[in-house]
Amino acid sequence: MNPNPFLGVLLHSIGGLAAASFYIPYKRVRRWSWESYWLVGGFFSWILAPWIVSMLVCPNLIPLIGAAPVKAVFWSYFFGLLWGIGGLTFGLSMRYLGMSLGYALALGFCAAFGTIIPPIFTGKFSGLVETASGQMVLLGVLVCLSGIAVCGKAGVRKENELSADAKKATIKEFNFAKGLWVAIFAGVMSACMAFGIAAGKPIAALAVHQGTPAIWQNSPVYIVIFAGGFTTNLIWCVYLNIKNCTGRDYISSPGSPILLNYIFSALAGVAWYMQFMFYGMGTTQMGKYDFSSWTIHMAFIIVFSSIWGLIFREWRGASKRTHLLVFAGIAALVLSTLVVGYGNYLAK
User: Fold this and answer.
1) Measured between alpha carbons, how far apart are the two ends of the chain, in Å?
2) CA atoms within 13 A on the CB side of 314
3) What are phi and psi of 116, to 5 degrees?
């Protein structure tokens, strides 16, 4: 297959739009607890969608999974468990910070840690410091952290400028301090997705060998990784269902439109899965520019989530200076992904 970087960027943009939009259907869920609609959406995004897509594009999927190297399956699932914790807390960051600030902070930390953790883990961090490409990557991380700091400053100003009623008018559970800590943790744990995909490369290679089109080679890998993520979220959400006595949401919650709640949760879950479906397709088209895939993906998500934040008027009532701060912070985050991408380009 001849790579097509232009098509790859287009696919990454669609994935970024899906990632930035998946939380919107959850806003239409009524009288369900967070843990209930998050688990229903997770079942569609982490179990149903990966299996359905893989069965459509992978010949003999079940034998393929059975023949996959045990080590690759184990580590993909294990990193999926850890990444699932990040996904769980990522949802909480949306809950406490809203879409624009929640995405900016969580993805900013994810981009920073996703860049730094792998070389530290593999013992190659000193190589970053000693080379021009590594120094450029580290500069990108610093720009990223500065963008996070600016967004954080904007969040603090918003919290101080608006009344409790004004904040809850756009984000019902707005809590900057709680949301910040959740976003930090989400960023650290979400970086495990990169480890899961790397661990699953033998599965992807086997899929191509058995007739799966190269553009879909990551589909069976996602089955394993997302199974780990679903395990983590299932345990936590069921625990909250028991603790908060919200298990009845799934069958008969007073005053809740159950069918619509299932539909909107399913839409959110499918939209969530589409981000990685298109991301996986995009990486196969980037060719020698594949190093830039993650940074391009992050940039598109931050841009689209910022647009949604404006559409939903999450910063309504904040001062002009606060608006300028958040725009500057988001711009710095986008710039940081480009700087990291350029550093990777120098390494290539």
Assistant:
1) 21
2) 25
3) -85, -40
Instruction: Identify the three-state secondary structure at position 313.
Output: coil
CA 344, CA 65: separation in Å to the nearest integer? 33
Helices 34-43/70-97 angle, 10° precision? 140
Residue 40 has what pLDDT? 96
Structural domain that includes position 297: 5-347
What is the residue whose two structure tokens read 């598109």?
A: 300
Q: Give tens-digit pLDDT for 177-221.
A: 788 888 888 877 877 887 888 889 899 999 999 999 988 888 999
Angle between helices 99-122 and 176-190 (to 10 degrees): 40
Q: In whole angstroms, how large is the CA radius of gyration of the chain?
A: 20
What span, in angstroms and rounded, lies between the C-alpha atoms of 50 and 299? 24
C-alpha 236/C-alpha 88 separation (Å) is 9
pLDDT tens track for 36-89: 999 999 999 999 999 999 999 998 899 998 899 999 999 999 999 998 888 778
CA–CA separation, 102 vs 151, rounded Å? Answer: 10
b (16+ CB within 10 A) / e for 157-173:
bbbeebeeeebeebbee
Query: What letters, b where the CB count within 10 A reaches 16 and e where it falls short, cover 9-47?
Result: bebbbbbbbbbbbbbbbbeebeebbbbbbbbbbbbbbbb
How many structural domains are present in the chain?
1
Cβ(234)–Cβ(39) below 8 Å: yes
The CA distance from 30 to 278, in Å, is 30
pTM across the whole model: 0.76
Cα–Cα distance measured from residue 203 to residue 58, given in angstroms and rounded to the nearest whole number: 12
* 320 burial via Cβ count (<10 Å: 0-12, 13-18, 19+): exposed
**Residues 6 or more apart from 108 whose CB is under 8 A from it?**
144, 145, 147, 148, 151, 187, 302, 333, 336
